[in-house]
Amino acid sequence: IWGGGRERAYQEILDEAQQTLIQLSLQSQQQVQTIQKENETLQVKATTDPLTGLANRARFNDFFDDQFVRAFKLQRPLAILFIDLDHFKQVNDTHGHQAGDEVLKSVGKLLKLAVRNIDLAARYGGEEFALVLTETDSNAAAQMADEIRQALQAEQIPFDKKTLRITASIGVAGTDRTRIFTQAQQLINAADRAVYAAKSAGRNCVRLFRPKPAPVPVKQNP
Question: Which helix (H) or strand (E) holds 129?
């Protein structure tokens, strides 16, 4: 009888130990999940513009560099849009910085809806935004840019019992399955030049950067 009781006591101890291990394992899993969620939250904060909810400049740089390397290596189309809000300083000067913030938020929402999950919409800085469009040639990107321009022009932004309006100058540049751009910065510079061309053309328009064709060598007569 004593032996059987001792066996039961051992079994109870083993059962309790097993239950304790299970509880510790569950707690450990929960702690790991909590840490993972906290890391994900920190990662999102570190790569997101807090005002617009779009990617920030650092996230844009990483994403664009990666996509440029891929496009160059595989000769795939990659396009970039630079969107510069027209006369944004006047909004701040006339209605205050809170009004300017509302405009930026509204633009952020519109751009977030405009891109696919394989693209990236980012606040590049100040009132300038950038879209990275993967697997997209220049003409398709320019068409999308004009749709965005029209949507921004039609946007009515409520603020303090008033309605704010905004337009944008948009520059577009793309690789178009070529290796004419050998560095990521060259494509950025091309889109930037296209933005200045849009501003020079009167703003509220889209300009597409078209690289000059390579000169054809002149054949020498023998």
Answer: strand 128-134
The catalytic site residues sit at 127
Distance between CA atoms of 5 and 131, rounded to whole angstroms?
74
Q: Which two tokens stand for residue 145?
A: 């840019």
DSSP 169: E
Residue 120 vs residues 108, 152, 174: alpha-carbon distances, Å: 12, 18, 15
Residues 6+ apart with CB under 8 A from 126: 88
Termini Cα distance of the chain: 117
For 172, residues 6+ apart whose C-beta sits below 8 A from its C-beta are 79, 80, 81, 82, 138, 141, 142, 145, 191, 194, 206, 207, 208, 209
Give the span between the Cα atoms of 81 and 138, in whole angstroms: 10
| Cα–Cα–Cα angle for 70, 72, 78, rounded to 5 degrees | 75
Please state, in angstroms and rounded to a whole number, the distance separating the CA atoms of residues 49 and 28.
Answer: 33
* Contacting residues for 179 by C-beta, under 8 A, at least 6 apart: 72, 75
Strand partners, 55: 48, 122
Of the candidate ranges 40-54, 133-147, 172-186, the one whose mean pLDDT is the lowest: 40-54
Sign for the CA dihedral angle at 89, 91, 97, 100 comes to negative
Q: For the chain, give the number of residues.
A: 222
For 19-48, what is each residue's pLDDT tens digit? 888 888 888 777 777 666 666 555 666 899
